[in-house]
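Q: Got a minute? One more chain.
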Amino acid sequence: MADIFNNRPVNGQEDGGLQDTREDTRDTEEARKELETWKTKAEKADDVKARMILEKLEEDEAKSKAQQELVAHGKKLEECQKESTERLNTVQAEILRLAGRRQNLLDKLKGYQAVLEAKRAESTKLKRKFKIYTQVPDTGVEFKAQIKEEMDENSQPIRGVFTISQRPTVPLQGGQALITFEEEKVASQILKNAKCSVSFGNISLDVKPKRITMEPTVKFEVHLEVSRKQLKVSGIPCGMTEERLEMSFSRPSRGGGEVDDVQYDRTTGAGVITFLPPGVAESLALRGKYRVDLDSEVTVQVGPIYKYQLCKFQTFCGSPRRTILLEDVEDKGDAEDLLDHLEIHFQKPSNYGGEIKSIEYTPRGKALQAFFSEDSAAAAAT
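A: Always. Here it is, folded:
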């Protein structure tokens, strides 16, 4: 019985071992679950790590691309700056070249202007030296007796001869003066001096006497003949005929007379009426208009018929012998006072002067035109 009793398991010990086994099993399950949890977390962490690595790679790739683009833009900027610098240098070189060319052209222009002035002076000298002479050819004249109509003075045209003479002129610029002396020798003595010192108050003015060179002038005659029998008509209506014109101008009540001939151009509306008695055309021309008969009375314009001819055309040039030009006259005080001092100075025999006939002065900033007559200077200025 003792053996049997000894072999019987103790209830307490058996329950404790079973309980430990259960606890181990539970711990194992919990450890397994925890392991699964950590595996899940590790997998998630790996996924996050992989994603972050991938993002980092993408960011590194974008960074590398941006750096490449930055380097490319830097190179392009350098190229643009280099190109801009080259263009700027080219433009500056072109500006310098054009400036040099402009200066060369200005120098050439000054040279050409000097040549032009020399040519003008030479031309003026030649104009004074050479004149145009016209020889009237010999013409045979046969005298015959006048017919009755030619002997009638009233039938002859009105003749007139007009002489046109251009007055010599000299432009008078600011700071210049013209002096005309009574004697030629006084002007000649003054012109021998290179300059004249004129006292003006407490100062002295140095003026330069100079001989005047005038531009060539012309003189000619106009021979005019006005018909006493012919009348010019204009503004004639289109429907007018030669017969109606003759009838209209034949009425003495309107100032007309017997018509000898009618010439009428329908395209221009102008014509010529020739009267048989003299004086009719002359009186109608003074009116300026005349009434003619169409369907109703129409007013036309009338006027004289004349012929003219230019004859005896001559050119003249030279220098006045009693007039001198004073240059470099400075404005000092009032213009009238300066003019008085100039006149006093050049009237004194001690200054090689003499009696002055006329004197004209132009202040600076103004200009005058001096007109000369045949035997006097500075007759007028405008």
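A: Confidence is low (pLDDT under 50) at residues 1-13, 376-382.
Q: Perfect, thanks.
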